[in-house]
Amino acid sequence: MTEGRNAKSAFVLLEDGARFDGIAAGGGGWADFATGEVVFTTGMSGYQESVTDPSFAGQIITFTYPHIGNYGVCEDAMESSRIWARAVVMRSAMNTEDAPTAERGWLDWLADCGVPAISEVDTRALVRHIRDAGSMRGGVFPGSMGVDEARALIAAEPSMQGADLARIVTPREMTVHGGGDGPRIAAIDTGIKGSIVRNMVQRGAVLELHPCTVTAEALLASDPDAIFLANGPGDPAALDYIVDTLRDLVGRKPTFGICLGHQLLCRAVGLDTYKLAFGHRGGNHPVKDLETGRIEITSQNHGFAVLGPGGEHTIAGDEPVRWQTDFGAAQLSHINLYDRTVEGLTLLDVPGGTVQYHPEAGPGPNDSLYLFDRFLDQIKAAA
Amino acid sequence: MPRRDDIQRILILGSGPIVIGQAAEFDYSGVQACKVLREESYEVVLVNSNPATIMTDPEFADATYVEPLLPGPVAQVIAREKPDALLPTLGGQTALNLAKELHENGALAEHGVELIGANYEAICRAEDRDQFRVTMENAGLRMPRSAIATTAAEAQDAMIDIGLPIIIRPAYTLGGRGGGIARTPDEFREIVRGGLDASPIGQILIDESVLGWGEFELEVMRDHNDNCVIVCSIENIDPMGVHTGDSVTVAPQQTLTDRLYQKLRDQAFTVMRAVGVETGGSNVQFAVNPTTEEIMVIEMNPRVSRSSALASKATGFPIAKIAARLAVGYALDEIDNDITRLTPAAFEPTIDYVVVKIPRFAFEKFSGVDERLSTHMKSVGESMAIGRTFQQAFAKAMRSRELDSVPDVGGALEELLARLEMPGPDRYDVLLAAFRAGADPEEIERRTKIDLWFLRELKQLADDPDGPFRGTRTFKSVDTCAAEFAAETPYYYSAWETPSPPAPREGFTTPHHEVRRGAKPSVVILGAGPNRIGQGIEFDYCCVHAAMTVRASGRDAVMVNCNPETVSTDYDTSDRLYFEPLTLDDVLGVVEIEQPGGVIVQFGGQTPLKLAAGLQGAGVPILGTSVDAIDLAEDRGRFGALLERLGYEAPPYATAHGVSEALAASESVGFPLLVRPSYVLGGRAMEIVYSVEDLADYLARTAAPNGPLGWGSADPKGRLVGTEREIFLDRFLENAIEVDVDALCDGEDVWIGGIMQHVEEAGIHSGDSACVLPPHSLGPEMLDEIREHTRGIALGLNTVGLINIQYAVTLDGRLFVIEANPRASRTVPFVSKAIGVPLAKMACRLMLGERLEDLALPSETMPTDHISVKEAVLPFDRFIGTDALLSPEMRSTGEVMGVARDFPTAFAKAQAAAGLRLPNEGTVFITLTDGDKSGAYAIASRLEDLGFRIVATAGTAQAIRGMGARVDEVLKKVGDGSPNVVDLIEAGEIDLIINTPTGSGARADGWEIRRAAIARGIPCITTLSGGHAATRAIAAARNGEPKVVSLQELHRDRQRVG
Ligand SMILES: Nc1ncnc2c1ncn2[C@@H]1O[C@H](COP(=O)(O)OP(=O)(O)O)[C@@H](O)[C@H]1O
Ligand SMILES: Nc1ncnc2c1ncn2[C@@H]1O[C@H](COP(=O)(O)OP(=O)(O)O)[C@@H](O)[C@H]1O
Ligand SMILES: [Mg+2]
Ligand SMILES: [Mg+2]
């Protein structure tokens, strides 16, 4: 049910001073506050997957779909062991546990986890503001707090540009997943989603998840068949230590990356990344596979992207354009049909390739699961 | 691959008359297709028998044929026009089945016409329930266990094997016609019999029941590169067991986890591919077990549908437009999303609001029918509402229904709960009442299987009806992308939001309105709301013409309507579309932000008229005929006085307030009497009574609180008149010829568009009777008198715009005025197409200030080179149990038009188009009331000459023989033992029935006969006049299949106006 008419008032404040009022949702209201980069996602379902996706670390998620929490939460839908989003902004929050799979109410769970949630917000007005002004820092505050105090707290929040959040979400030590007879894959875990692990393991792969500070030697210790670069939060430009590690690996092992991993591999081969105005977050972006000409509806969650061969932000045609990299040629393999940004590329002279979006879904469409097969076939081929 | 250049001419088939299960949505999709195909510079040939559609406006196609949607006429069109391709997926099941027949009888092959959009095999795999099941099984998808039966015996075995309750669904019928849920063996046998009759191929599917499972629909699009997208997911609040057309539905789905939803999505694509629909849109229906999450496929429609129209309006993704482009070779990524203009159509809309669709029923018009909702669709229209929350949308949807009377939700809680177990038309009123009476969601879930998510929301709404409407009203846009991109298309809905302080940035205001209103003056056009009997697509046609005219005049056209099926709610019909309920408050909300130069209330039927006074009271300028004139025409006293002043005759009448007054007045007026409540459209609750006893009985039946007279509900002026509600008593003119006139008036001059003579005599509602233009049996003097009266009344009412006047001409040649409606009438599109002048556009120009002389209208004399016949289409076959009789109460859902050089041929065409198969030979059964017996001879002898066997009941036979014609057999009446009439009808030994009843007594007699006729689909004519016309039509049919003719040919001589 919609939470707390006559519950505690609360508000969202952005660094440019725009304010959107609502009420504190969950546990009947919270005293605490949260700051971070305010972003929006347009997915109409999959709220639990989103907040537990480590890529949302340091961010406040605004859901464009009004009703959030409709089917509660359950263990199965966790993309990691905890909530990473700093707070959630909603139009109409729900706390029901009626759904067959529900193990707990959405708002109760957020409250348990100490994550501020605000509801009854004119989220569409907020989203249009961000769309026009770009995503920016902001916070979710109790109505009792003065605007100046809130302003100061936002100012104290470091900008997303140049932020190394990988260190925060990465595991303390290496773990191994799956016991199939498939290839052995060593991954740099910058905040990998459970769905990626599941998809690889289901296909028989053995997956090592290493802390992001891992050295090339440590990665190669088990003589893996391939290196995998996970998704994750923050600015790829702040992760040069991973990029350096990669430069030792590219060419020696087939190397693949998703999302942040895609950006890191691209930087490792000498390409550049930039910050998108308000990012891609949702489950409906069309992406064209230039190899097959097929269009996939994709799950997206990123705030940075890779520059085109001429340093351009977007690619004009549907041609598989090429980059000259430090490791030979790279070719555009996927393009976003919404804003024509780079969605994936293949390394032509060394084994490897990447995609910017999320073939693992969770949440979102399953159109791109084929990429995991393609990926494992390429590893077998290279072996 | 872009546009195909190997085809130039494309044939599009419409869906014909509005019937239950096939309504205005196919005009909307057809119009969209015509638009884009011509944009793509293809030639479009269109066939549709329904004149009230926008698509049959001559400017929407290169050749427009208002001809029966039957293999014969369409084959003629193909032979004449030589199209390269046939696009069959836009005209509903009618077009699909017709295309199938044209393929099977070789007509397509003969003229080298290619089926595009869906090929023959795909159509069969989807439409033939057995083939579909096999296809699904091979694709690894689950369906309810089921068996096919073509005989009662096969069905019986299946029942024993599958077990009760059980679902029966006939193959190839619309909206589940003839199917149902059987809970007992008797119910089963009965439904099976009906189902086998209803199916054109005599095949039924017998399904394991998944009653109570969740019902979901996905709208899929696929292009020739095999790219698939889901446009929209729709969740039925009513679980499996209530036809989706009768269910309250919500978009997007609310209760499925992301993982389960993605499973449905994947399966929808599998269905699409397995059936093999290469390009276009399809609708896939699923049942989902609420606890185990098992999924079953229920059906798929390989074409645009009611749901795809809903999905288009709900998301802003124009499915029909895109489907048409896909059919001519484009791929999804080669087509622009015209809402954002910068992203391609290859995407899935994401929305940041909730959409609720609610059906509109009309059971009050069909006494004796089973009102329980089932697997066979019974609603006649629908409303859609958009809100930022489910509660906002649901509350708006409820107030969009335009009910004539408040549903009775009295009674104890236990009573209400019991009613909920058998879903009926007022289910949600009862449900809210139950909550107010203290029911808890779990209890109602147990009784209804409605998902608790909805029930908890509805309980909140019941407890706090104003809750969703706190905060400030803001207007937000429908943009397909949840504001991720700036939208170009001005398509708005109202949303109530928590107000926030103004943002520091430019262009941001509070409340956060998104309406971008230019400097141009705007004119608000109020639509007609949900389709219902008495107020159908004709009024939407007029509103669309008003929008076109306002735009052409250099002003902004602003449309307000809540009917998702219509062309008026297509975002590119007007400059700004507000998808809102047509209540005073909602409309004033639009007016507040639009600040229009004026509001047009003349084109949307009774709906906007009801608001006129309130709008004027709020200081809103009303264009055209004044509110006072509207009242003058509606108010019996004032109108009577006007007629008196003009010296025109009207039937003696009285206006009574309450029962006792009515009884008292009846004597002075004189019997027979025509009784009805005031301010009703379509003759609601109108009856002919022959004596004081009849009258007392009528009042007792209807005047009960919440009876059809609607004591409980407010009249248009917003007054709750309670037991003081007005009742009209008119002297009923027997055997009078009824005449309908549509005219234009600018306040000083009058131009008569058309004089229509009804085929059936006065007493049959104008909406239900066939009519002829020009009149075929009125003398020039009478026509002049009619013209003179029309001028007098139009000017007397200070009409500015359209006026419709109904007259009755009695046997002694006297002209009576029955009523005048200073507004667009049901017949405007028919007349416009018959005479080649778009009356609604002309009227709109007058309302915007032009004079008749500015319009360059042709001389008033009517075209004589061709005859146009309008025939009504009645839904009796879907309301088994109701008497299939024409009466003063309108009950038709749609109409067709037949055009030819002579009346009999035009009438024959209209009959064929209306689905009445007049026989060329065989046996005619005649049974007439005493009043008509004298007329029996003429018909009988004519039919005898035509070689028919004549059989009749004793009395009628005597009359016929007495006049010297032959009667081959005298039949036993029902109840005089068998074999009687009904036995013969059911045995299929009768090919045509002429049965006229009058007076309540005779009505009862004929009831069984008509029921049997309907069930067997045998034409049954219930008026003498209709019988004469039919006889002449049968004779005309001897000259072979009537020639088809296009509107463009008809009016080639007439210079285009408009
Ligand atoms: N096996 C079943 N058990 C229960 N209800 C069913 C079953 N099959 C269909 N229905 C109900 O009947 C309705 C009509 O069935 P459908 O196959 O969609 O026919 P139509 O072609 O008329 O849409 C559905 O909307 C659903 O509510
Ligand atoms: N005095 C009358 N005598 C005979 N028939 C009448 C009379 N008044 C009305 N009717 C019949 O009833 C029908 C409906 O009446 P009308 O006044 O037109 O109601 P509505 O407003 O529903 O059109 C008419 O079309 C006509 O056939
Ligand atoms: Mg269906
Ligand atoms: Mg009338």
Secondary structure elements and their pairing?
The complex is a heterodimer of chains A (383) and B (1058).
Chain A lengths: L8 E6 L4 E7 L8 E8 L5 H5 L7 E5 L3 E2 L18 E3 L2 E2 L12 H7 L4 E3 L3 H11 L2 E7 L4 H9 L10 H4 L5 E3 L6 E5 L5 H9 L3 E5 L5 H5 L5 E4 L10 H10 L5 E4 L1 H9 L4 E17 L5 E12 L15 E4 L2 E9 L5 E6 L4 E4 L14 H13 L1
Parallel strand pairs in A: 3-4, 4-6, 5-7, 6-8, 11-12, 11-13, 13-14, 14-20
Antiparallel strand pairs in A: 1-2, 1-9, 2-8, 3-9, 10-12, 15-16, 15-18, 17-18, 18-19, 19-20
Helix pairs in contact in A: 8-9
Chain B lengths: L8 E5 L11 H15 L3 E5 L15 E3 L5 H11 L3 E3 L4 H13 L2 H4 L3 E2 L4 H8 L1 H10 L7 E4 L2 H11 L3 E5 L9 E3 L2 H14 L5 E5 L5 E9 L5 E9 L12 E3 L6 H18 L4 E9 L6 E7 L4 H10 L3 H9 L26 E7 L20 E7 L2 H10 L13 H9 L5 H10 L4 H8 L3 H12 L8 E6 L13 E7 L24 E5 L10 H16 L3 E6 L14 E4 L4 H11 L3 E3 L5 H12 L9 H8 L1 H11 L6 E5 L1 H11 L3 E5 L9 E3 L2 H11 L23 E6 L5 E9 L4 E12 L9 E3 L6 H17 L4 E9 L5 E7 L6 H8 L3 H9 L19 E7 L20 E7 L2 H11 L9 E6 L1 H4 L2 H10 L3 E5 H9 L6 E3 L9 H6 L5 E5 L2 H18 L3 E2 L2 H14 L9 H4 L8
Parallel strand pairs in B: 1-2, 1-4, 2-3, 4-5, 18-21, 19-20, 19-22, 20-21, 34-35, 34-37, 35-36, 37-38
Antiparallel strand pairs in B: 6-9, 7-8, 7-9, 10-11, 10-13, 11-12, 12-15, 13-14, 15-16, 17-18, 23-26, 24-25, 24-26, 27-28, 27-30, 28-29, 29-32, 30-31, 32-33
The structure holds adenosine-5'-diphosphate (ADP) (2 copies) and magnesium ion (2 copies).
Keywords:
heterodimer; A: 383 residues; alpha/beta; 11-stranded mixed beta sheet; 7-stranded mixed β-barrel; 10 helices; 20 strands; 21% helix; 30% strand; globular; disordered N terminus; B: 1058 residues; 7-stranded antiparallel beta sheet; 38 strands; 34% helix; 20% strand; binds adenosine-5'-diphosphate; binds magnesium ion
Architecture overview:
The complex is a heterodimer of chains A (383) and B (1058). In chain A, helix 8 crosses helix 9. Chain A has ten helices and 20 strands. By secondary structure, chain A is α/β, with parallel strands linked by helices. In chain A, the strands form three sheets. In chain A, strands 10, 11, 12, 13, 14, 15, 16, 17, 18, 19 and 20 form an eleven-stranded mixed sheet that branches. A seven-stranded mixed beta barrel of chain A has the order 1-2-8-6-4-3-9. Chain A has a two-stranded parallel sheet with strand order 5-7. With 1058 residues, chain B is an alpha/beta fold. In chain B, helix 15 (441-448) packs across helix 16. The relative contact order of chain B is 0.08. Helix content of chain B is 34%, strand content 20%. Chains A and B meet through strand 2, helix 3 and strand 15 of A and helix 9 and helix 16 of B. The site of one magnesium ion (MG) has 3 residues of chain B, from loops.
